[in-house]
Design goal:
By secondary structure, the chain is α/β, with parallel strands linked by helices. The chain is 40% helix and 12% strand. It has a seven-stranded parallel beta sheet, sandwiched between helices. Strand 5 (153-157), helix 5 (172-192) and strand 6 form a beta-alpha-beta unit. The two termini are 21 Å apart. InterPro entries: NAD(P)-bd_dom_sf, SDR_fam. Pfam families: adh_short (PF00106).
């Protein structure tokens, strides 16, 4: 891949860490100017509680990769802050070509294998705010700027494809939160179709985020040591894979063929012929469908 996005302007909402950071960096690697937003800065830590991951760091990584990174502290639950963010992008650039709605930050609220009546209600409702309201608020203010030019791309980032999420996600509030972006993408694709825009939902597979690596007590270099504790981690992918997926989508002149669809990083790796950082092409959802749920006699290695 070359600097195929030079002159393009992107906004990655929720770019502090994980998939959001990787998508911002890959857009920068393609030459884009990327606004990166989030709540954790060098001066303030969000409720996620990971002070070593900041939007300033992400902006620096974008610039180091070959693009231009601009960090704007933003709480995407605050309409006034989001409106000010978009007004700044308009004032400084006059255009927006790519919007990635990657805001989440709700992993600390998860209670799996817990029935609704036993859930912490406040935590469950907070998930809706973090994973649904933020996306709606951001698109409300950003789409008028993006719609000025045909060819814009909106990516709704979620957890699990629409097909995979037919399996219950073991927490009602999480299940609803991660299914909503599929419907948001489907609905907005219809709303921007006559304006030349493309809207998709996109999910990574089993993501080796910073938080997941910490959970297993491993690093990106030693991640395979965690497979003994969690065998399915053998199919895990680095955040770079979904970053490369967004980059490929943004650069595709025929991306409108995907509009309204639920996509995965592994699916797009095959379509656009890119790989993860280790040269493999992990097919997480194929592995789970065939082996974990379907009982096929195969291993994760057969799906890399």
């Amino acid at each position: 891949m070359t600097a195929e996005l030079t002159g393009r302007v992107a906004l990655v909402a929720g770019a502090t860490r994980g998939a959001g950071r990787a998508m911002a960096v890959e857009l920068g690697r393609a030459g884009a100017l990327v606004y990166v937003t989030g709540r954790t800065t060098r001066d303030r830590v969000s409720e996620v509680g990971r002070p070593t991951e900041t939007i300033e760091q992400t902006a620096e990584l974008v610039t180091a990769a070959g693009g231009t990174g601009i960090a704007v502290p933003t709480d995407h639950l605050e309409p006034a802050q989001v409106q000010a963010l978009i007004e700044r992008v308009d004032r400084e650039q006059g255009r927006l070509d790519v919007l990635v709605n990657s805001v989440w930050g709700g992993d600390h609220l998860l209670e799996f294998d817990t029935r609704l009546w036993d859930l912490d209600l406040a935590g469950g409702l907070r998930m809706f705010r973090l994973g649904i309201d933020t996306h709606i608020i951001t698109s409300h203010y950003a789409l008028p700027l993006m719609n000025r030019r045909p060819g814009g791309l909106l990516v709704e980032v979620t957890d699990g494809t629409a097909s995979f999420n037919r399996t219950y996600r073991e927490n009602l509030c999480f299940d609803l939160t991660k299914n909503a972006p599929h419907r948001i993408a489907f609905g907005l694709a219809a709303e921007v179709k006559d304006l030349g825009g493309t809207v998709v939902s996109l999910t990574p597979g089993f993501l080796r985020s910073e938080e997941m690596l910490d959970h297993f007590g491993v690093t990106e270099e030693t991640w395979r040591d965690a497979v003994a504790e969690q065998p399915h981690f053998a199919i895990a992918e680095s955040p770079a894979l979904i970053g490369r997926a967004v980059r490929a989508l943004a650069a595709d002149p025929d991306k409108a063929r995907w509009t309204g669809q639920s996509l995965s990083s592994g699916q797009l790796a095959k379509e656009y012929d890119f790989t993860d950082t280790d040269g493999s092409r992990p097919d997480c959802f194929g592995y789970f469908e065939d082996v974990v749920f379907g009982g096929k006699d195969a291993t994760a290695a057969d799906y890399r």
